[in-house]
Specification:
Strand order of the largest sheet: 1-2-10-7-8-9
Number of domains: 2
Number of helices: 16
Structural class: alpha/beta
Bound molecules: ligand PLV
CATH architecture of the largest domain: 3-Layer(aba) Sandwich
Family: Belongs to the serine/threonine dehydratase family.
Protein name: L-serine deaminase
GO molecular function, one term: L-serine ammonia-lyase activity
Radius of gyration: 20 Å
Number of strands: 10
EC number: 4.3.1.17, 4.3.1.19
GO biological process, one term: L-threonine catabolic process
Largest sheet: 6 strands, mixed
Helix content: 40-55%
CATH class of the largest domain: Alpha Beta
CATH topology of the largest domain: Rossmann fold
C-alpha cells in the first residue's frame, strides 16, 4: 500500500492532519502519494436519510407533538455511522493503511462497517463491559477485536498506543471535527422534512459527539436558537458534572448500566456547545432509562440500548413538562424531536437481564 512508500515526516503530518484537521488534507504536501481512490472512498456517505415519524405514544407522554428521528435503523445500528463513516472515508481518501477505534460498541460497529466498505483493516478496542454479542457482531463485520480495561477511557488509551506503534489512524468515537461534521447531516435532514423548526431536540450525551454534531447542524441551517435537551444517566453523567463545574470533570468510574454513555470525561467541544446554544442537561436513573427502553419496544416495536433509553426517559417520565413548568422551555411547544440514537448491543435477553439487575421485575 502507498503508506509504506511514504516518508516518515509525511506520515506524521498526515496523522496530525487527521487529529488536527485545521492542518487539512488539502494543505498537505502535493507530493504526497495517495492510495487509489475506490468507489467507497468517493464522497457518497455510508449513512441513510433516516425516517422521521410522529410518535403518538411519546406525544401523549410529552404533552406535545413528538417526532422520532430513527437513527436506530442506520447501517451498524446507530447514528454513529454518520460521523464515523465520514471520518473513515476522509482518512482512507488521504491514504491511511488501517484504522483503530476505541469504543463502547457502537462507534466500533460503525467504524468496522465503514472499514469493510473501504476494504481497510480495523482493530476495535472495547472495554470488558462491552458484551460478547457486540464483540461477535464486530468480528462478523471483519474487525479484529481487542478487549482492554474496564471502561471506555482505558480502551481508548490502548487504541492511542496502537495508533502510534502500528501507524494506524485513530478513529475517535466522539472527539473529532470530522465526526461532528458527519453527525451534523442529521439536522439538515430535519430541516428538509419538517415544515417548521422544532421547539427542542432531545438527545443522549456520552462523550458529546452527537451533541457537537447537532450543534454544528443547527448552526448550518440557522436553527441555533432551538434548545437541546441533553440526557445522561447517573453514573455516566460526565456532561452534567462538567456543566455544573463549568470545566471538564472526570468521573471516578462509570457505574451506570448505560455503558455507551460512559466516557468519564466529555470532549471539550461539548462544553463549548453549551455556550453557543441553549443546552439543558437532564440526568435520569438507570431504572428510568431501562423502563423507557421497554416502553419504547412496546409502543414502537423497536429495541434500543439504555443509552438511547436515557433520552426517551425524559419524555416518558414527564421531564419535558417539568422543564416547561420551571420556565426552562416555552409553556406551549409546537413540536419536539427525539434522536433515537439506537445501539446495536442489545437483545431481548439482555433487556431481561438488565431489568432483573435493577430490580425491575
Ligand atoms: N457510544 C460510544 C462511546 O461509548 C461508542 O463507542 O459506541 N447513544 C448510543 C447508542 C451510543 O453508542 C453513544 C456513544 C451515544 C448515544 C453518545 O454519543 P456521544 O459519545 O457522541 O455523546 C463510550
Amino acid at each position: 500500500m502507498a503508506w509504506g512508500l511514504l516518508e516518515q515526516g509525511v506520515l506524521l503530518r498526515w496523522s496530525l492532519c487527521l487529529s488536527f484537521p485545521s492542518l487539512g488534507p488539502d494543505n498537505a504536501s502535493p507530493s504526497v502519494q495517495r492510495a487509489p481512490i475506490t468507489r467507497a472512498m468517493d464522497k457518497k456517505p455510508f449513512h441513510i436519510v433516516s425516517p422521521l415519524l410522529e410518535s403518538l405514544s411519546l406525544s401523549r407522554a410529552g404533552g406535545t407533538r413528538v417526532y422520532i428521528k430513527l437513527e436506530n435503523v442506520q447501517p451498524a445500528g446507530s447514528f454513529k455511522i454518520r460521523g464515523i463513516g465520514h471520518l473513515c472515508q476522509e482518512a482512507a481518501r488521504r491514504g491511511c493503511r488501517g484504522f483503530v477505534c476505541s469504543s463502547g460498541g457502537n462507534a466500533g460497529m460503525a467504524a468496522a462497517y465503514a472499514a469493510k466498505k473501504l476494504g481497510m483493516p480495523i482493530t476495535v478496542v472495547v472495554p470488558s463491559t462491552t458484551g460478547p454479542g457486540t464483540v461477535r457482531k464486530l468480528e462478523e463485520l471483519g474487525a479484529k477485536v481487542e478487549v482492554s480495561g474496564q471502561v471506555w477511557d482505558e480502551a481508548n488509551r490502548r487504541a492511542l498506543e496502537l495508533a502510534e506503534t502500528e501507524g494506524w489512524v485513530n478513529i475517535h468515537p466522539f472527539d473529532h471535527p470530522l465526526v461532528w461534521q458527519g453527525h451534523a447531516s442529521l439536522v439538515q435532514e430535519l430541516k428538509d422534512s419538517l415544515d417548521t423548526k422544532p421547539d427542542a431536540i432531545v438527545l443522549a450525551v456520552g462523550g458529546g459527539g452527537l451533541l457537537a454534531g447537532v450543534v454544528a447542524g443547527l448552526h448550518q441551517v440557522g436553527w441555533q436558537d432551538v434548545p437541546i435537551i441533553a440526557a445522561e444517566t447517573w453514573g455516566a453523567h460526565s456532561f452534567h458534572a462538567a456543566l455544573a463545574a463549568d470545566r471538564l470533570v472526570t468521573l471516578p468510574d462509570i457505574t451506570s448500566v448505560a455503558k455507551c454513555l460512559g466516557a468519564k470525561t466529555v470532549a471539550a467541544r461539548a462544553l463549548e456547545c453549551a455556550q453557543e446554544c441553549q443546552v439543558i442537561s437532564q440526568v435520569v436513573e438507570d431504572t428510568e432509562a431501562v423502563q423507557a427502553v421497554e416502553q419504547f419496544l412496546d409502543d414502537e416495536r423497536m429495541l434500543v440500548q439504555p443509552a438511547c433509553g436515557a433520552a426517551l426517559a425524559l419524555l416518558y417520565t414527564g421531564r419535558l413538562q417539568r422543564l416547561q413548568h420551571e420556565g426552562r422551555l416555552r409553556p406551549s411547544l409546537g413540536s419536539v424531536v427525539v434522536v433515537v440514537c439506537g445501539g446495536a448491543g442489545i437483545q431481548v435477553a439482555q433487556l431481561q437481564a438488565l431489568k432483573s439487575q435493577l430490580g425491575l421485575e
